[in-house]
Specification:
The relative contact order is 0.05. The chain is elongated. The protein folds into two domains: about 35 residues; about 35 residues, no CATH class. By secondary structure, the protein is mainly α.
Length: about 80
């Protein structure tokens, strides 16, 4: 059972580790989350942004870029 006190204790224990061990722990936790294939639901802000982008697309369905165009634009911006 997860309790707030346990969270504080675990965080304190993690902070007491050397930085290299803290990084390894964070990576191990992240890998476990990825392996679980859990996807958190989008936040309210993310939902609003997705809705805004969808509405913008519906209003201008031909205003799109291919993957190749996007890739080229990113590569060009990185060269500057």
């Amino acid at each position: 059972m997860w309790r707030p006190m346990m969270k504080v204790d675990l965080l304190a224990q993690a902070k007491a580790l050397p930085v290299d061990d803290q990084i390894a722990l964070a990576e191990a936790i992240w890998d476990a989350i990825v392996d679980s294939e859990s996807v958190p639901p989008p936040t309210q802000t993310q939902q609003e942004e997705l809705k805004r982008r969808h509405q913008r697309h519906l209003a201008n369905p031909n205003n799109v870029m291919s993957l190749e165009e996007v890739t080229a634009a990113v590569e060009n911006s990185l060269r500057k």
